[in-house]
Amino acid sequence: MKSEIWAIGGGKGGTGKSFLTSSMGMKLALGGKRVTLIDGDLGGANLHTFLKIKKPKYSLTDFFERKIPLSDIIKGTEIPNLRFVTGDIRSLDTIGIRYTQKLKLYRHIKNISADYVLIDLGAGSGHNTIDTFLVADKMIAVLLPEVTAIENLYLFIKKVLFRKLNMLLGEHGLKDAAKKAWKERNTKDIKNIRELIRHIKDISSEISAIVDKTLADFKLYVIMNQVKNDQHIETGFSTKSVINKYFGIDCRYMGYIRYNEFFWKYIKQSEAFRPITSTGSTSQEVGVIVQNLLGDKQVKISEIANG
Q: Which H or E run includes 307?
């Protein structure tokens, strides 16, 4: 059976993507699922530090440069059912990774023998990051309750959608249509990405149907991290609302992690990453998020009021 790919991104660095990727992977594995984690932060791989394991001998560098199959780079961890691939591009220019190399990597990822493959993406919104995000069955954005983080997420989504549209139109002989329309947005009275999409749909009924189908299948899953109060939690609802309205896509709010100073101190001091396997509040919150993602269940405002 084909594995389900989750990509964890969001644009801004320091939002807790690596923590959440490793934590969700552990929860899935402890629940009996076969899980492979991939450190997709090609220039600053650090996922292994959250797993409290030494950096493996082989990494994606060896996949790209030495043509070692991805299946030979995947290594086990102390947790049953949980395997790991480190990014750690040492000598290869991550910006210069060829498109054909990326396609090969994506083919190998899709052929991994696992129930779930979780990819921890790096900060920023370069083509490598966005293309990997678009490969996923579940595109997950981790967000802090900060203005800059929210603005970065909006920019990230805009670039993801723009990239998706360019790729889609390119398949139908209209490679630069979106780029050209956006450059001429002032004369065409295009104020935002949603109006750009409307303009593109006017090209033909065939293109309109294709774009509608693509956007209908486009879902973004948002997780709030390091929230300190109910207002921070509610930021997830307002962010979801803006994304739905401004971008015209299905954004879903899947859960939140409260800031827990003791938890982070424990992680830094501990030899092994065990807090997430405990019954503490942070572990429970990660568990709720995983169950929500598995069951496609969103957070409800009434649950915040009652909880």
A: none
> Is the Cα torsion angle 220, 264, 269, 291 positive or negative in sign?
negative
Place of tokens 């002989």: 173
Query: Residue ranges of the domains in the chain?
Result: 4-148+219-306
Residue 270: HSE in the Cβ half-sphere, 13 Å Cα cutoff: 16
SS3 255: strand
As beta bridge partners, residue 120 has 8, 39
pLDDT tens string, the chain, 307 residues long: the values are 789 999 999 877 778 888 899 999 999 999 999 999 998 866 555 677 777 777 778 888 888 888 899 999 999 988 899 999 987 655 444 556 788 888 999 999 999 999 999 999 877 778 888 999 999 999 999 999 999 999 999 999 999 998 888 888 888 777 777 878 878 888 877 877 888 888 888 888 888 888 888 888 899 999 999 999 999 999 999 999 999 988 889 999 999 999 877 666 655 555 555 555 555 788 899 999 999 999 999 998 877 755 5
- As a whole number of angstroms, the distance between CA 284 and CA 291 comes to 10
pTM of the predicted protein model: 0.89
- According to DSSP, the β-strands at 75-76 and 82-85 are antiparallel
| Three-state DSSP state, 115 | coil
* Domain 4-148+219-306: CATH class, spelled out: alpha beta
Q: Distance between terminal CA atoms of the chain?
A: 38
Residue with structure tokens 């249509």? Answer: 177
